[in-house]
Amino acid sequence: MLASLLVFVALSSVPGDPAQLILGLNAAPDALAALRSQLGLDVPAPQRYLAWLAGALRGDLGESINYGRPVSALIIDRLAVSVPLTLGAGLIACLIALPLGVTAALRRGTWADPLVTVAAQVGAAVPSFWLGLLFILFFAVQLGWMPAGGFVPWERDFVGALRSLALPMLALGLGQAAVMTRMTRSAMIDALGQDYVRTARAKGLEPGTVVFGHALRNALVTLVTILGLSLSNVFIGSIVIEQVFALPGLGRLALTAIGTRDFPLIQGEIVLYASVIILLGFLVDVSYGLLDPRIRID
Amino acid sequence: MAAAPSPRASVPQRPSLRQRLRLARFGPSFWVGVALIGTVVTAALLSYVWTPHPPNAMNFAVQLQGPSPAHPLGTDEFGRDLASRLLIGARGTLLVGFVAVGIALLAGGTIGLVSGWIGGWVDEAVMRLVDVLYAFPAILMALLLAAVFRPGTLTAMTAIGLATIPIFARIARSSVLTLKAADYVEAGRALGARPGRLLLRHVLPGAASPLVVQASLSLAIAVLAEAALSFLGLGTPPDVPSWGNMLREAQGFLAMSPWPAIVPGLAIVATVLGWSLLGDGLRDALDPRSR
After folding, report:
1. Do B148 and A137 lie within an 8 Å CB cutoff?
2. Chain B, 94-133: which have a CB under 8 Å from a chain A CB?
3. Does B148 lie at the interface with A, CB-CB under 8 angstroms?
4. CA gap A117, A123 in Å, rounded
5. Do A143 and A44 fall into the same domain?
6. Sign of CA dihedral A38, A43, A45, A51
7. A65: in domain
8. What is the pLDDT, as a whole number, of residue B262?
9. Model pTM?
10. Residue A64: inside a domain, yes or no?
């Protein structure tokens, strides 16, 4: 809520009059006044904020100036791209990072650990949007296997939609996988260094039981934190990836909104992004209590 | 009458950052980081005195060419020399990174130090406010600022800086909380040092190493964010060569030449890798426990 207030204050402190911006400098004064009251600008800012917040809690984010449609409807349309993109990229990141990170932690002192560590360090330095460009170069331009961009709606062609999301998911997921691998590795190393792991080993438990039953079980809290952080990163990263692959998702909608100075839309979008990040953080906190009985949330 | 020993000399202090740096043994990642960042800094400085071609000189006879003796890294869609633009781009990358992380270090560090020092409900309230910033990663903050002001280098730097404040505030605060109870700070207080002096002379030096390490790691993230923002058209203005801008322009010509898309990307990777290796190397050298 504090975050939404911040967005609101920032956006209402915009220099210049939105009505003037929309109608141009030569607009008639009564047309300006009419538009201002249509946009709700004739009411004082705190009152506007409360009205907007009350609406937002009911799912009403106001109406887009540029599209003339409710902001929430515009956002819902775009979720068909952004949600699968984010979840797919997150899944790819997990599938790569968890096994690699755990393996590297278990194989310290062999060739596997430095190999994974170096690969992850270099991978984390690669911007996912550049990786996306390289994928287009290779898979679309050179090989012609994949579309270079654009999106086929799910209901028209399910496989086509999946194909248009495959490269963006991979580009976004691989970048995050590198970051996640490093974090998983150090979480696992921490867990493996604990006394109870040594005890478990000392009493002769199977290595598998020790790793999965003791170390991994206790590293779960850290791993869930990493997962939450990764999903936030991927969600924000999707803004840039959508631009690379010309995907009609939330990110492109936001960029268009900034280009056209469509304030209700910008506000709705930014509050949505921030809320998702806050929600992910909250879910991570709640999961602590479930995963580790020693942690109680008051 | 013998002079009384200086009270400060008699109190064992935590080693200062300078002492730690002198004693530190730097590993390979530090030196690779230094080499990479050194190269970028050299490129940026060099661009002020020399570039192979004028960076904005168009030459339609050599559009979208691969590397050649005249154009070592190839040319873009206007026949502009990619090597020259790459050198100029190094400036913006470094500048935006330094300013953004400078903002975060200064603001976040001060907030964390003071808030942790005061403690109590003030600390609680301040850190809650700082946490709000966690909900706005650099790209999102930049969208917000670009809507309010106009997109540009200043907006991008400020956005990245604001988004990076919480991590510095957290680190500074946790150092202060540990150091507040340290014997030499206690001793300083007992000798009647004022809070400002205690904070600056006793606490800050002890808190400096983790902040310096984080600054290097944050520079890596800032370079990535700046490139992404320029790519989106929310960073460096299009008439100034920057690595992100070069990638955005290259996007339209991927089918014709890969070079404009490959060259700036490699430069970004090298810079980000440089800062993160430098940060890791510093951390390993300054804080042996973290290995």
Report:
1. no
2. 129, 132
3. yes
4. 10
5. no
6. negative
7. no
8. 92
9. 0.87
10. no
* Residue type for position A222: T
Does one domain contain both A95 and A216?
yes
Q: Mean pLDDT by 10-residue block, N- to C-terminus, for chain B (291 residues)?
A: 47 66 79 95 91 84 83 85 91 95 96 91 89 89 86 93 95 89 82 82 84 94 95 89 92 88 94 94 75 45
Each residue of A148-163: pLDDT tens digit? 788 888 888 888 888 8
Indicate whether A158 and A272 sit together in one domain: yes
Domain ranges of chain B: 25-42+81-290
Looking at residue A161, its pLDDT comes to 87
First to last CA, chain B: 51
Residue A77 and residue A128 in one domain: yes
Helix axes B138-148, A2-12, angle to 10 degrees: 30
Which of A11, A13, A141 has its CB closest to that of B255? A141
Dump the DSSP string for A73-107: HHHHHHHHHHHHHHHHHHHHHHHHHHHHHHHHHHT
Indicate whether A105 belongs to any domain: yes
Distance CA B252, CA B228 (A): 16
Query: pLDDT class for A123, splitting at 50, 70, 90?
Result: very high
Contacts of B143 in chain A (CB under 8 A): 239, 254-255, 258, 266, 269-270
pLDDT, residue A9, reads 65
Count of domains in chain A? Answer: 2
CA distance to partner chain A, nearest, from residue B244 (Å): 9
Statement: B25-42+81-290 belongs to CATH 1.10.10.10: no
Place of tokens 């911007």: A127
Q: What's the ipTM? A: 0.87
Cα dist from A107 to A181, B213, B284, whole Å? 14, 27, 21
Nearest to B264 by CA among B231, B239, B232, B235: B231
- B220/A contact by beta carbon, under 8 A: yes
C-beta separation of A170 from A90 below 8 A: no
Is A228 found in the same domain as A80?
A: yes
Same domain flag for A109 and A192? yes
| Residue of A11, A122, A129 with shortest CB distance to B148 | A11
Using a CB-CB distance cutoff of 8 angstroms, which residues of chain A are in contact with residue B255?
141, 148
Distance from CA of A291 to the nearest CA of B (A): 24
Show which of residues 232-271 on chain B sit within 8 Å of chain A, judged by CB atoms: 232-234, 247, 250-251, 254-255, 258, 261-262, 265, 268-270
Q: How far apart are the two ends of chain A, measured CA to CA in Å?
A: 21
Residue A22 lies in domain: 2-57
**A25 plus A131 within the same structural domain:** no
Whether residue A277 sits in one domain with residue A201: yes
In a domain, A62, yes or no: no
* pLDDT for the residue A10: 62
B11: distance to nearest CA of chain A, Å?
Answer: 35
Name residues whose C-beta falls within 8 Å of residue A59's C-beta, 6 or more positions apart in sequence: A72
Q: Spell out which residues of chain B touch residue A236, defining contact as CB-CB under 8 Å.
A: 137, 139-140
